[in-house]
Structure formats: C-alpha cells, structure tokens
Amino acid sequence: MCHQMGSKITRELNPEMGSFNSTEEAWNHRIRQGQLGNTMVRMMNSMGYDRGLEVYADWIDRIAEGDLPPVPPRPQGVERNVVITQWDIASDISFLHDMYGTDPRDPSVNANGKMIATDYSLGVMWILDPITHSVEEVELPYAQGVELTDINTFSPPSMEFPSLYWGDEIIYREYGSSEIQGLLPDGRAVINHSFRPAGNPDRCTSGNTFADFFPLQAASRQQVLYDIDSGEFELIDTCFNTHHAAFAEDEDDTIYQAALGLRNAIGWFKPRIWDETGDITAASGWCPAYYDTNQNGTYDEDEDQLANMNGYFISWNPLDGSVWYAFTGTNPGAMVRIHPGENPPYSCTTEIYEPPFYNDEAPGQIAALPRGSATDRNGVVWTALAGSGHLGKFDRRLCEIQEGPGKLDPQHCAEGWTLYPLPTPDMDNAEAIAGSADYMYSSWVDQFNILGFGTNVPYLTGTNSDSLMGFDPVEEEWFVMRVPYPMGFYTRSMGGRVDNPYIGWKGRGIWAANEVRNPWHIEGGKGQTPTAAQFQFRPHPLAH
User: Fold this and answer.
1) Which pTM does this prediction carry?
2) Hey, which of 214, 408, 512, 520 would disulfide with 491, CB 3.0 to 4.6 Å?
3) Which of 521, 417, 408, 485 is nearest to 94 (CA)?
C-alpha cells in the first residue's frame, strides 16, 4: 500500500546491503531497514514470517533467473489518444497524499487555477500553477501553543537498521498527516490535517446532542480550510477523526468524513453554518454505524451492536442523500451505507453489504476488500476490490431483501453485486479468485463527462501498474491510461476538472499525482521527486 511491488528496487537485492547466506536471510534484513522496518515486519508476520520470507525470496530468485510476467499489450483503440502532461513537484523525501484543484460537485470551480498537493510527511502543501509551471511550498498551521512533539506520528522516529538511501536520517515526520479532499464553491481547499493532540475537548463527550448520544473521546486528525487567493487558514476542530471525504449537494455544502481510527462513525462538517456562526458544535455532527438488532430504526446502546467497521474512501449518493464508505479491515470487507435521516443522530440508519465471499447464493464469485467508494448519478456504487482484483458495482435496488431481520446478514444481497476482473495479469496459481497482480488504491466516477466518454464512467487507480483504468459501463470494456516515464507512477486518488468547456479536449482532464511514499523508488532513484499529471483524450492520435 506504500510503494509498487515489481519496480527495479523491489525485485532486486542491493549489494550494498552486504553478504548473506541465503535470499531469505537477505530479505529478513531488507524489510527491517529504515523507519518503516517495524511496519514491514508486522506485515510479514501476517503472512507467517518464515513463509513470507520464502515467498519473496523465491520471487526475486526466479526474476534473477529470467522469469518475466506476460508482456503487456501495446495501447489500442482510444488508448492511443491519451495525452499526459507532467510537472515535477515537491521534494525528494515528500510523501504526497492526494491532489485536487476543484469542487468534485462542480468541476468548473477554480478553472485554470492552482492544483494543491498535500505532503503527508513534511506538513506542507505543494501548490502547482499549471499555467506558469511554478510550484510554491506552503506550511500548514497548528493550533496555538501546540508543539509538534505533542502530535502522534505514523512512522516511528527510529529504526533497527539504517536506510540504504538515507542512512540514520529521520525523513518521515508526519506531524500533520495531511490530505487535501477538494475545494468548496468559493475556492477554499478542504484539508484533513492534525493540528492538535488527539484528546478531545469536553464538548465532544457531553453537553450537546451528538456528544450525549455517542461521545467521542479522541480525534487524531482534524480539518483545515485554506483560501487559495488570500493564503489564510481556518482551523476546524472536529470531534471526529477526519479521513477521506464526500461532498454533498445540499444547501450547507456538507462534507462527510469516513472517521478512520475512530470506531464505527461517520462525521460531517457544514461550511455554510460555520461561516454564519463560527460555532463548530453547530456546524458538525456524527453518526455511529451499527447493526439495528431490535429493528427500531435508531441506535440503542444497550440493545444494538456497533458495526466495528471503520471507513476508508467515502461517497455521497445524489439520489437519496445516503453516505457509503468502504470497510477494508478484515476479509471480505464491506460497503457500509449510513443515511443521516431527518433528525440525526437519532434518525441515522446503517446497512452493511459484503461482496460475495463463499456465498452459496453466488457460486463461483469470490470478492474481497473494497477500498474505493464512488457513487454515480444513478445511485450505483463503484468500488475497487483490492483484495480480489475486481471493479465492483453495487446496486442496492436489486436487493431481494429490503426490510426485516434478514438485512442484518452482511451477505444478504449478493444479487446487488456485479464483478469485473481487472485488465491486468493475475498472480500465479490464483485459482479461486481473480487474484490480480495490480493494486487499486481507490475508485472515482466521472459524473460530468469530463473526458468525453459519457457520464457515470468509473475509473480505478492502477497503483501497481503506472496507470489509471477506465471502464465503459455500457460496452463493459476497459481502457488504460499508462504513464510510460518515469516508471513508478503510484497514485492514490484522482479528480477531474474542466478549465474551458468550449475548446474541446484541451479544456478538460483528470488530475492525479505520483503519491509513492518513497520517491527514490521512481525510475531514476534517489533524487527523484513526485510528479503531478494531467490525463486528457484527443479525438485521434495526431490531433494537436
């Protein structure tokens, strides 16, 4: 989830590591290097440590002996019409996490304006002006009196063995863990950012409707609004932990958050109410995700069961105002639907839909681990099923069980799912599932025909294959937009923008950034910086 597998750096052993008696022994040393060594050890433990070392050692030994994956096809059809423009941005130790330059509800907002990429590691933003080709670095703020050491970091400031590239230098700082989510209609950027310690103020645990109904003890990341024109910041001190966001089309411009790390909750912030009152309690709220065991339509602490499903990517359904988030924690994962209702939190309802997973009602269909959540204009949810290698389409209207206790079974609506295997090679010996060797970090739906293929076209990040992958839902055909150089394009999210609706393909495109955790994995090695990329489609290969 942090870098590609199969790049030159990962498929070879650097001789500067030293000499080892076996490839397994070399791997044991390799994964312990640098600040993320303990994380890699934990991941290897999840596979069975010795077995994991054996698998990875066998993999690179076979590559060294000449084993290769299938040769990918040359671009075909519309793939030959892709135009990719790239800009070098950020620093050689930056960990970009998300880049946006418009309002996801209106892609004409901030037309021809600056793109903002947040740096998860360094606590700054990198602001690209695609007209002047200039890049500005802007520091993100912290609450008054807060010391950076008061804020928890994702990576430890220590290591067992020095990095091959940076030695003992602590390069991952991560005090802000910053992630931009999009722009409001007035051009203010919405950024998730840790600007205070995690412990919540009293207003989050009692004294108001939401705190009394479902108290929240901590929030490790809050929200910041940034005015691109004035350079001013507003600190939005949410009670819930902010993660990926969904922008609702309502009078308050509500921003929903999948409250990752804060159990069983979604949260929301209403910019219009904030602007009018300056009162964060009035401008925010949250709902728990729960199994409605007693079937009375609201959460009862003594009778209902919390879902224990933290959210990842999140989307808003324009048909009915419901919010959908992807739960990735354990197989098979799930898509969780929460509807705030007319009087939240009392009216909040939850529905849980697992993808088909050894389900007798869906023989031969095995899908796992939704990560993306993107809803089209018809209310259909599209998700990247990263565990099994599918694009998943879920249409709740197809569910045979619509009411009653049967809905408590998360496998109750296999008929609502349609699974599309990825157009990428499968892993060897993956027989029961699709088993794609690619990895998809997220999904996105072009609701506004930005690229010219029609409305409601879903896209996935080909995070392990230098690409964005589009899917024609009518013809059920894939098209791939691959970044050929430098190799190692690893994106986590994307978004479309219309800069000029009257000049054809040159006035519109999809934006994504190379958001690899370690830029020295990009072709060229140490010293490489991330890139911002705009993807466009011309009418034919020679169009200028």
Assistant:
1) 0.95
2) 512
3) 521
